[in-house]
Design brief:
The protein is mainly alpha-helical. 73% of the residues lie in helices and 0% in strands. The relative contact order is 0.11.
């Protein structure tokens, strides 16, 4: 009888799980040599310093300079802060701004409505492992490894008014890059050609990770192939869909190389990124004004990136 309270007391005390876990981590750390610790520290610090120095500090400087009228030439101690005047000037007295916003929205709509679904369609076809799928996958992805500037030169062979393949095939004489009524569409076709391969690869990677039992169960229930994809497979690809959405938005905002190669973002090809370059490194050299345009781009990008990160973090907690 005297031993019973001791047994009950032992049973009432829970095992120190947290202490054991902490002790295990400490033991694992002690197993690492000094060289391993130095390597791990460098692997964390070097990327952190690079991201801070080349991304966050320039972004913070851009936001600060957007409230000044600095021209990039005078000394820093002579910078005059003008508050929100640059933003007011961008909206009210800068004619290229509205066409640039419209072109960026048109770019986004074209990539999202045309290029992205087409890339997903190609991924579905290649996922069936048809004959020659490796060749098609490589051919479709090849434009992704090319820069947009190089793509602009490649499509110049098709769009040239005098020697282009399109005008030669149809017997026309359209100046695809020079006519402000059609050049935005011509450039978006070239950009979509590259975007399709990128989206195809993302969706193809997602489709390879779908559990085959889901499709088998839908087939047993008598669901058609298209119904199985949209009702079963597509919802499973939700993380890929979010990534594709963010990538498409960022691609539409940072579109620059192609229009700059064509005509430096003028004559119907105004984009926000081109306006930033024209004001920051162009003849005007209006650092403050260009920084205001860049800050607008940054804010719009952060909205979608924040939505993406919030969704990913919520899924990880679940």
């Amino acid at each position: 009888m005297s031993d019973l309270p001791l047994i009950q007391a032992d049973r009432a005390v829970p095992p120190p799980a947290a202490t054991t876990s902490t002790g295990g981590r400490r033991r694992r750390l002690r197993l690492l040599s000094r060289t391993d610790r130095v390597v791990i520290t460098l692997m964390v610090l070097v990327p952190l310093l690079l991201v801070t120095g080349f991304v966050w500090l320039p972004a913070a400087a851009t936001v600060l300079l957007s409230g000044t009228n600095w021209d990039g030439i005078g000394p820093l101690n002579e910078i005059e802060f003008v508050g929100a005047r640059n933003y007011s000037d961008v909206v009210n007295i800068y004619p290229p701004f509205v066409p640039a916003i419209q072109n960026n929205l048109l770019w986004l709509a074209t990539l999202f409505v045309v290029a992205t679904p087409f890339g997903m369609f190609l991924a579905v076809l290649l996922d069936k492992e048809l004959r020659g799928s490796r060749f098609y996958q490589t051919a479709l992805y090849l434009p992704v490894v090319l820069s947009l500037a190089l793509i602009g030169f490649v499509w110049q062979l098709l769009y040239s008014r005098d020697q282009g393949l399109i005008n030669a095939a149809f017997g026309s004489s359209i100046d695809w890059y020079g006519d402000s009524n059609v050049n935005i569409w011509a450039v978006m076709v070239a950009s979509g050609w590259r975007h399709v391969g990128y989206i195809m690869l993302l969706y193809l990677a997602g489709l390879k990770g779908v559990d085959p039992s889901l499709r088998e169960a839908a087939s047993v229930d008598g669901a058609s192939e298209s119904r199985t994809f949209f009702r079963v497979v597509f919802p499973v690809l939700r993380p890929i869909n979010i990534i594709v959405l963010v990538v498409t938005v960022i691609e539409s905002l940072r579109a620059f190389d192609l229009v700059w190669v064509v005509n430096k973002g003028r004559n119907g090809l105004e984009l926000i990124s081109a306006l930033v370059t024209q004001n920051v490194v162009g003849e005007a050299s209006r650092i403050g004004f260009g920084s205001a345009l860049a800050t607008i781009m940054l804010v719009v990008s952060l909205v979608f990136i924040t939505i993406y990160l919030a969704t990913v973090m919520r899924e990880n907690r679940e």
